[in-house]
């Protein structure tokens, strides 16, 4: 390692938020051999494990922010996204595009960011929400490791957030792409790759900050 100035960092620095990226209904209902987006083996099982992190975050008062990829039916907002391996996906009039409500324990008052591109930061109010919540550390789970997780991580890194990816709860388009993306994220922030058990332990050490909804005056 070339960096002689590297500082030891806690898994969670300051305040954390759990970022659940693109775990949508289609993850659990599409069992076809050919998908519009390639998934590595065990994809569904890895996504399901994210529920463990979600439940622990709720218990500790750590904000849970769901990210949902969605596109207009006339395809006007796809841009260059269909120039590669991915076919048309996540159309807003398709029930499979909805957040996986039952599997992820999604609640009506949960934070939800809808995005038109890979990164949760691009063209959304994600960073406004993070600043309002006074978040310092992003705990990332979901998919794809090599696409939306990776690009969200990079933008978080470039915006000076501490970024951690829960290895057990992310999955890529292929096993090698998944691993290469994890290596790329670890290169940007040493200690970025973390196991679910490590993250759960770190969450236990967080002060329980229960989210409260301000009541409107009568």
Structure report:
This protein is an alpha/beta fold. The chain has one domain (16-204): Isochorismatase-like (Rossmann fold, 3-Layer(aba) Sandwich). The protein has helices at 26-29, 43-60, 101-104, 126-132, 145-158, 175-188, 196-204, and strands at residues 16-21, 64-69, 111-115, 137-143, 162-171, 193-194. Strands 3-2-1-4-5-6 form a six-stranded parallel sheet. Helix 5 links the parallel strand 4 and strand 5 (162-171). Helix 2 (43-60) packs parallel to helix 7 (196-204). It starts with 15 loop residues before the first strand and ends in a 14-residue tail after the last helix.
Task: Give me the oligomer status.
Answer: single chain
Question: How many strands in all?
Answer: 6
Largest sheet, spatial ordering of strands: 3-2-1-4-5-6
Count of DSSP H/I helices: 7
| Helical residues, percent | 25-40%
**Domain count:** 1
* Largest sheet composition: 6 strands, parallel
Q: How much of the residues is beta strand, in percent?
A: 15-25%
Structural class: alpha/beta
Question: Under CATH, the topology is which?
Answer: Rossmann fold
Which second-level CATH architecture applies? Answer: 3-Layer(aba) Sandwich
- Round the mean pLDDT to the nearest integer and report it: 89
State the low-pLDDT regions, or none. Answer: none
Query: Which CATH top level class fits?
Result: Alpha Beta
CATH superfamily membership: Isochorismatase-like
Shape: globular
Distance between the termini: 60 Å
Report Rg: 17 Å
């Amino acid at each position: 390692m070339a960096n002689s100035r590297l500082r030891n960092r806690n898994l969670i620095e300051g305040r954390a938020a759990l970022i659940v990226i693109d775990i949508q209904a289609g993850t659990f209902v599409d069992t076809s051999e050919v998908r519009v987006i390639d998934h590595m083996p065990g994809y569904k099982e890895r996504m399901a494990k994210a529920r463990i992190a979600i439940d622990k975050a709720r218990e500790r008062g750590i904000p849970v922010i769901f990210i949902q990829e969605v596109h207009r039916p006339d395809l006007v907002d796809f841009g260059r996204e269909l120039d590669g391996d991915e076919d048309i996906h996540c159309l807003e009039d398709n029930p499979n595009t909805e957040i996986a409500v039952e599997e992820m324990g999604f609640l009506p008052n949960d934070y939800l960011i809808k995005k038109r591109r890979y990164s949760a930061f691009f063209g959304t109010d994600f960073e406004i929400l993070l600043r309002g919540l006074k978040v310092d550390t992003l705990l990332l789970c979901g998919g794809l490791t090599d696409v939306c997780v990776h690009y969200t991580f990079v933008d978080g890194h470039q915006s000076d957030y501490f970024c951690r990816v829960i290895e057990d709860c992310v999955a890529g388009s292929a096993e090698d792409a998944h691993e290469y993306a994890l290596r790329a994220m670890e290169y940007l922030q040493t200690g970025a790759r973390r196991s679910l058990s490590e993250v759960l332990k770190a969450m236990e050490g967080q002060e329980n900050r229960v989210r409260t909804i301000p009541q409107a005056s009568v």
